[in-house]
Amino acid sequence: MTKMIAATGNEAIANAMRLANPDVCSAYPITPATEIMHIFSGYAANGEVSTEMLLAESEHSAMSACIGAAAAGGRVATATSSQGLALMWELLFIASGMRLPIVMGVCNRALSAPINIGCDHSDSMGARDCGWIQLYSENSQEAFDNMLQAFRIAEHMDVRLPIMVCLDGFITSHSIESMRWVDESAARAFVGGYQQSIPLLDIAKPASYGPLILSDMYMEYRKAHEQIMAKVPQIVQEVGAEYGKLSGRSYGLFESYRLEDAEVAIVVMSSAAGTTKDVIDRYREKGIRAGLLKPRLYRPFPYEEICRALQHLKAVAVLDRSDSFGASFGPLYLDIVSSLCNQPQKPVIINKIFGLGGRDYMPDQAEHTLDELIRIAQGAPVNSVKEYIGVRG
Amino acid sequence: MKTWHELPPGAVITEPGSSRNFKTGSWRSYKPVWNEENCIHCMLCWVYCPDMAVKAEDGKRCEFDYDFCKGCGVCALECPGKKGVKAITMQEEGA
Fold it and tell me: I need a surface site. Which of A28, A63, A138, A311 has the fewest CB within 10 A?
């Protein structure tokens, strides 16, 4: 076991990248993800990695360079946030459609306008349907562990899809937390060497990326993509179990916290799960059967497994750190409800929108939510299915 | 037609030169017509053609390959001709 150290989420992501030693990293700075590439470029300058660094003139170009480098046959990693992810938008679909296993750290940050650099999930939630895999991290430790595993998941020969490793901007990216690295040689062996798939630089076998596929074949490619996505949860679990042997920390599709015998539960992702677990512990001490489900693999969404984990509950609150304007509910809520909607027995499910633009998520918000769930479990009517919490007026 | 089970990952084409199998001549609404009398074999049409539809042999310009000519007209535009008379003119298809 390695010793306990203090590190920020960005240091954690950069260190996982160092251990993976990508062939190419192309990036453009954006708060709060800038520091990842800042730290990593130090490793490159000091010869600790053999990575070719490409500073692009925008995130659109950064992702374009990542796509080119991945198609050429290299291991590729980058990092971004908020507006940067938004500017990458059209390239995200190209990376996934070409099946290029690019690994990207995403420090979750709100989107303009109004301009804001605080944490919420609007950026990566907006990119949830672009064919990338998405993992979410509660703290620096999970950010490091997820980033290392991300290379194995994305580059798996049955997957070959790009992956985002999300961590909460500032809350996780810039806060110093206690965590553990893994043994360096074991980590390098775990990530392994890069296995190419139809590299453009193999000039003995010429290949073309990005052909025109019209209505006679396009739908078949989309169906194939959906089927590849369906294989991902199994591989995420295999890699998570193998990582457990290496580090002592195993990972699955989601985390269940005091959920098995619970009557009410909160579903929430990333850093807010930590605060919520503390409140759940206090409610358990009072004899209240409360629990938590924290999704880790958000795309592809493991509907069946999450359904089995939640269907026994009486009342569930899904906490979204972004809103899906015009969809009536937050994106996580819609996925949770979809996973349960065809079950004969299912909990009452309510939606809370919280923590937008860096607004703090406080223990009393979890308490009020749990109190409401307890009343609903006892038969009280639902006053409003969706509610903004921690908002004035 | 292939089913979704049979597709190469990422739509990557691994057969070099397979664009020869995809004939684009039917896209054409105007057809370039070559008049050899006015041709000085400067090869500008051969250089400019984006579809390699101008054939050449031994440094001499040959007939168009109408299987691939989309009728863009760049050859006719660039053609200097002989004494101001073009060697390539565009004619409407089916006219």
Answer: A311
